């Protein structure tokens, strides 16, 4: 009896083994390990793609910030130029010329003597036109330099020194440019060019490797000329230090 039962159990076991299903494989026909490996590769490729997309996004964001800063700086420069022109034209319009002065100017026969009799306003306008109209920047430097020496107390002196500093700065003559901007800061404290001159002094300090001095200049602008166009540029430069 025991042998019959044992035989029956063996037969059932063999039947069960024969009827058991084959090992499960994924829908692609691979084994579980192969499927896991494929999933890992897919996940890695997706992560790499997301990383590259993030890098591209960060690059684009930085480019937008750079363009925004450049646009703001250009708008600031245009605003300052228009303000200088308005001030110049207003002064010219309000200038009263005596008939005797007109007669003296009209009686001049040579270009050399004409230059020597130029009025204060006309001398400034001539130097300014070399920049704005004729684009003769190298000639404008001695013109503004002569004006600042001939008319040190002129109402145009602050602007003339600022223009002189800007032209020298553009040529990389930082020591001379610094002297001109310092004149505006120290001698014309009520000038609307004082904040701009402080910004330029900060930029000169940066270019000559003095980051600490540059920071001090920019902080002065933010403190003394808050919410101005000059302050916006100073903040931008300060953040970039």
UniProtKB/TrEMBL annotation:
Cited HAMAP family: CpoB (MF_02066)
Biological process (GO), any one: FtsZ-dependent cytokinesis
The protein's name in its UniProt record: Cell division coordinator CpoB
Keywords: Cell cycle, Cell division, Periplasm, Signal
Pfam families: TolA_bind_tri (PF16331), TPR_16 (PF13432), TPR_6 (PF13174)
Chain ranges of the YbgF trimerisation domain: 31-101
SUPFAM superfamilies hit by this protein: TPR-like
Residues annotated as transmembrane: none
Gene: ybgF
């Amino acid at each position: 009896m025991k042998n019959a039962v044992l035989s029956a159990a063996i037969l059932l076991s063999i039947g069960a083994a024969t009827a058991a299903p084959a090992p499960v494989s994924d829908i692609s026909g691979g084994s579980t390990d192969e499927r896991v490996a494929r999933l890992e590769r897919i996940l890695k490729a997706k992560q790499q793609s997301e990383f590259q997309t993030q890098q591209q996004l960060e690059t684009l964001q930085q480019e937008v910030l750079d363009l925004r800063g450049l646009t703001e700086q250009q708008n600031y420069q245009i605003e300052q130029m228009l303000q200088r022109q308005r001030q110049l034209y207003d002064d010219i319009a309000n200038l009263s010329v005596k008939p005797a002065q007109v007669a003296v100017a009209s009686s001049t026969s040579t270009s050399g003597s004409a230059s020597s009799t130029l009025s204060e306003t006309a001398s400034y306008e001539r130097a300014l036109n070399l920049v704005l109209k004729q684009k003769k920047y190298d000639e404008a430097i001695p013109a503004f330099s002569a004006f600042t020496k001939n008319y040190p107390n002129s109402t145009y002196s602050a602007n003339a020194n600022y223009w002189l500093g800007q032209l020298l700065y553009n040529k990389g003559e930082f020591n001379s440019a610094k002297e001109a901007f310092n004149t505006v800061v120290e001698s014309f404290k009520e000038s609307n060019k004082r904040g701009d001159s402080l910004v330029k002094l900060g930029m000169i300090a940066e270019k000559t490797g003095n980051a600490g001095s540059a920071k001090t200049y920019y902080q002065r602008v933010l403190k003394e000329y808050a919410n101005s166009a000059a302050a916006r540029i100073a903040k931008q430069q300060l953040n970039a230090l």
